[in-house]
Write a structure and sequence with these properties.
The chain has helices at about 15-25, 40-45, 50-60, 80-85, 135-150, 165-180, 190-200, 210-220, 260-275, 275-290, 305-319; strands spanning about 5-10, 30-35, 65-70, 90-100, 100-110, 120, 125-130, 155-160, 185-190, 205-210, 230-235, 240-245. The chain is of the alpha/beta class. The protein has a 10-stranded mixed β-sheet with strand order 2-1-3-12-11-4-5-10-8-9, with helices on both faces. Helix 10 (about 275-290) packs across helix 11 (about 305-319). The chain is globular, with a radius of gyration of 19 Å.
Length: about 325
Amino acid sequence: MPRIAVAEGDGIGKEVIPVAMKVLGTVRPDLESFPVEVGYGRWERTGEAITPAEIEAMKGADAVLFGAVTTPPDPGYRSVVVRIRKELDLYANVRPVKGGDADIVIVRENTEGLYAGVEKIGPDRATSLRVITRRGSERIARFACTLAKDRRHLTVGHKANVLKADTLFRDTCIAIAKENGIPFQEKFIDALCLDVLQHPNNYDVIVTENMFGDILSDVAAYLVGGLGMLPSANIGDHSALFEPVHGSAPKHAGRNTANPVAAIRSGAMLLEYLGDRENAARIEEAIGQVIESGVKTRDLGGSAGTGEMGEAIVAALAR
């Protein structure tokens, strides 16, 4: 029986994750879950946003369903998500963008770049070291090429014309694409962000370093209705964590207006990771049916609340 660690986190994470778990329970009542408390709310109460015990609990689970956490502008506060990704070595961040004319998978290196946490903060100068390694570049390129083998082609997004560290990333990705016989192209990341919006059919699997992938996926969310629709997977060799892309959105918390689809789709990706493609596909189909019927949250132009949207998807699965 699969064991799922469930970390609701902060903000709208506390609203959308219970809805996602209800949907998962509808198709897989056999799933065993246990809560893990992490985030800014815990930090305010205890002084610790996450402890080694929570890390070990996540490592012991078959997968993690994660909501969102708030990261305050406090130099003493360390990002919970970045720490989890590093401690569980979840080096591949997979963000599918599917809907309308788009069928794109953004594969983002998840442990290096400016998010590596190598920083020095002083009163007059603050420095964040951007780390690109051959090992990190090779393994994310191999992961992206594995996905591209079952699709059309690979795009390498970079800024090697200005950031010389990107030369290592670009050249490594291209070499591994050639090694695997994957058709590829390369694009400067700024031009890529625009062209993805103008010509989404030209893109399939896109591989980038850490921050560029974060920005690109947020930009690409426009193609499918916004961040409330985008799921993601954080995958390593031994662990996996699934989370909506949207973040904690504290100003929307507690208002029953958050779109739960990204969290529900993250749950579907979790099922697919566990080998249950059939029920993952059922969830995606139910989401499509509900939206097509006109039941939508406010970000999609409707009036349904978070819970109402979830109940409609559960009802669609029961039909």
